[in-house]
Amino acid sequence: MSGNLFDLIRSRVPSPDKVLLELADGRQLSYSDALAWSGRLANILVLRGVEPGDRVAAQVEKSPEALILYLAVLRAGAVYLPLNTAYTLAELEYFLSDAEPKVVVCDPNKAQKCGVAAVETLDAAGRGSLGAAAAGAPADFADVPRKQTDLAAILYTSGTTGRSKGAMMTHRNLASNAATLARAWHFSGRDVLLHALPMYHTHGLFLATNVTMIAGGSMLFLPRFDAGEVLRLLPRATAMMGVPTFYVRLLQHPDLDRARCAHMRLFISGSAPLLAETQREFLARTGHAILERYGMTETGMNTSNPYDGERIAGSVGFPLSGVELRIADPATGKVLPPGEVGVIEIRGPNVFAGYWRMPEKTAAEFRDGFFVSGDLGKIDARGYV
Question: Global pTM?
Answer without folding.
Answer: 0.95
